[in-house]
């Protein structure tokens, strides 16, 4: 009987643990570890911030879903991984594993932007979504800046926020008293979407009267403005940013990560040095945007590889990343986006736009929550 430990109770970890239970059966022990007992579906945070969804409708209890699925749940924060001894440690205990599946997400590096803690808003946690909701409700017109900090690998939420906020101001009769800006350090918005998606997003921003600022490196958020490494500041009474990411601190000293702290993996999502350790999601060193879509797809590939390794000691399933998402723009307006140019392909398209795309996002959210992450279909 093998001990398989999954670390992380987010999209990658839940899908990995549930799928492992389905695929390897009861012959092997599966454990899920996470520091908190609750999973909140991050993709719904913009809707929570805009008051469209209630916080209690987007969560899952990790202990409850594990108990139902025959997975052991351990509430613990992993502090150190020893790949040679095949153990992981918290501040109090250590556990031995035969296979380790890491899905610990990334550190959101707000500290790289001066003043962010006091004056900036983001959507990493449910508390942050509720904090932003208060600020949005208190907003009575003025300047709003949304954008991505230099080196941020996740632009979708910033775009969703700027479009949804713009629509909410129109509904509240505050649009004429407001100026809205979208800021990116890249040369175009949604660079990872390839040429068709980039043009689509730029057109949508223009049509909504949102000022687009490219090649601007945010260095500071203050109560009255956003500051940049180059050029003059932009006035802002409310600032939303997606920050840069860093690899999780539990990797430090493990020999599993590269310079930036992200975990190094091969095509099979395995550590090249320690082949019984796998990783998926935001913690993995990879080009392109960090998305739940790829965290969940990666989890499925890892499960196939672990199952194969248990039988034959070799693995053959490879992970090919892609950009696939629904950008929720509010009021049942959304765009379904597919791209892989950033990974060397030639897909860059917006095959669907409007209420049906909005419905796809809602349907996937409900499907994930109702199935408690035990899913076949991945959006
Ligand atoms: C507002 C917002 C909206 C988004 N919308 C979308 C979207 O529509 N579509 C999309 O594809 N992506 C979206 N994303 C990106 C998506 O949320 C992430 O890519 C995804 O959450 C990554 O999943 P993960 O499992 O790698 O990490 P996470 O979901 O971050 O989960 C990490 C887990 O590991 C746990 N953990 C961390 N450190 C430790 C430790 N030391 N020991 C034990 N456990 C630990 C955490 O508590 C957590 O349970 C969005 C992101 C944001 C912020």
Keywords, separated by commas or semicolons:
binds flavin-adenine dinucleotide, 379 residues, FAD/NAD(P)-binding domain, 2 domains, alpha/beta, 23 strands, globular, five-stranded parallel sheet, single chain
Architecture overview:
This protein is globular. Helix 1 packs parallel to helix 8 (292-312). A five-stranded parallel beta sheet has the order 5-2-1-9-20, covered by helices on one side. The protein starts with a strand and ends in a 9-residue tail after the last helix. By secondary structure, it is an alpha/beta fold. The chain folds into two domains: 3-106 and 247-312, 3-Layer(bba) Sandwich (FAD/NAD(P)-binding domain), CATH 3.50.50; 109-244, FAD/NAD(P)-binding domain, CATH 3.50.50.60. It contains nine helices and 23 strands. Bound molecules: flavin-adenine dinucleotide. Flavin-adenine dinucleotide binds at residues 7-13, 33-36, 42-43, 45-46, 77-78, 103-105, 123-124, 154, 156-157, 248, 250, 281-283, 290-293, 295, 325.
How many helices in DSSP terms? 9
Global structural class: alpha/beta
Strand content: 25-35%
Q: Order of strands side by side in the largest beta sheet?
A: 5-2-1-9-20
- By CATH, the architecture of the largest domain is named 3-Layer(bba) Sandwich
Radius of gyration: 21 Å
Low-confidence stretches: none
Please give the largest β-sheet: 5 strands, parallel
CATH topology of the largest domain: FAD/NAD(P)-binding domain
Q: What top-tier CATH class of the largest domain fits best?
A: Alpha Beta
Query: What is the end-to-end distance?
Result: 33 Å
The helical percent reads: 25-40%
| Overall residue-averaged pLDDT value | 97
Write down the oligomeric state. single chain
| Fourth-level CATH superfamily of the largest domain | FAD/NAD(P)-binding domain
How many beta strands in the DSSP annotation?
23
Q: Provide the list of bound ligands, each named once.
A: flavin-adenine dinucleotide
Q: What is the number of independent domains? A: 2
């Amino acid at each position: 009987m093998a001990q398989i430990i999954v670390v992380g109770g987010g999209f990658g970890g839940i899908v990995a643990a549930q799928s492992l239970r389905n695929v390897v059966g009861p012959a092997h022990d599966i454990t899920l570890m996470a520091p908190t007992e609750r999973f909140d579906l991050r993709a719904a945070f913009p809707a929570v911030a805009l008051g469209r969804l209630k916080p209690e409708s987007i969560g899952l209890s990790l202990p409850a879903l594990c108990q139902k699925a025959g997975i052991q749940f351990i509430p613990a924060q992993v502090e150190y991984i020893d790949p040679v001894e095949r153990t992981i440690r918290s501040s109090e205990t250590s556990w031995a594993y035969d296979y380790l599946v890491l899905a610990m997400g990334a550190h959101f590096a707000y500290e790289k932007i001066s003043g962010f803690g006091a004056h900036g808003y983001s959507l990493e946690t449910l508390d942050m979504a509720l904090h932003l909701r208060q600020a949005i409700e208190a907003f009575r017109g003025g300047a709003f800046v949304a954008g991505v900090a230099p080196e941020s690998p996740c632009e979708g939420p910033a775009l969703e926020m700027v479009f949804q906020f713009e629509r909410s101001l129109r509904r509240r009769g505050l649009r004429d008293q407001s100026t809205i800006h979208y800021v990116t350090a890249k040369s175009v918005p949604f660079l990872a979407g390839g040429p068709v998606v980039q043009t689509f997003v730029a057109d949508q921003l223009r049509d909504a009267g949102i000022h687009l600022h490219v090649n601007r490196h945010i260095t500071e958020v203050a109560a009255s403005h956003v500051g940049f490494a180059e050029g003059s500041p932009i006035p802002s009474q409310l600032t939303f940013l997606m920050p840069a990411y860093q690899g999780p601190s539990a990797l430090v000293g493990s020999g599993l990560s590269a310079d930036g702290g992200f975990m190094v993996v091969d095509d099979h999502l395995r550590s090249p040095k320690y082949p019984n350790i796998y990783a998926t999601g935001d913690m993995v060193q990879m080009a392109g945007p960090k998305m739940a879509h790829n965290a969940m797809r990666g989890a499925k590939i890892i499960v196939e590889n672990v199952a194969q390794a248990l039988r034959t000691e070799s693995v053959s399933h490879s992970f090919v990343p892609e950009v696939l998402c629904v950008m929720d723009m509010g009021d049942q307006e959304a765009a379904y986006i597919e791209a892989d140019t950033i990974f060397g392909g030639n897909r860059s398209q917006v095959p669907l736009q409007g209420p049906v795309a909005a419905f796809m996002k809602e349907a996937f959210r409900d499907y994930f929550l109702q199935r408690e992450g035990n899913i076949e279909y991945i959006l």
